[in-house]
Amino acid sequence: MSAVPPGKAGVGSALNDTTRxxxxxxxxxxxxxxxxxxxxxxxxxxxxxxxxxxxxxxxESIGGAKALAAQLPNGADLASRAGTAFTHAFNLASGAGAxxxxxxxxMVVMRYSRxxxxxxxxxxxxxxxxxxxxxxxxxxxxx
Length: 143
Hints:
Elements: H1 9-42, H2 52-60, H3 62-71, H4 75-125
């Protein structure tokens, strides 16, 4: 927001809010999709003797597995396996998301460090292109 002229602060704020909200929604969707894929590949239902339709429902989601487990007389094993697969999937997806966030943060820090170094070098050399110029806060056309 410090790079936006005062007359465009509302536009800058709206754009900042929009990108943050879209990024949050997109991040949740991506982490959710990744964790669902990991869950589906991690759950092991082979030794439970479930009919194919029941096994498919249990392997689709933790909710499906828990609902099915509540209906089965020996559903505790299914619920346990589903819980383990879900926890594994959530841990991996969250770790990947945290790793991506750290990489993005490092890239931002490196960019701003580089820009600060370039501005300092330009100021030392007297290069007008990188020297900050004070901006008059009065709107254009005011007396």
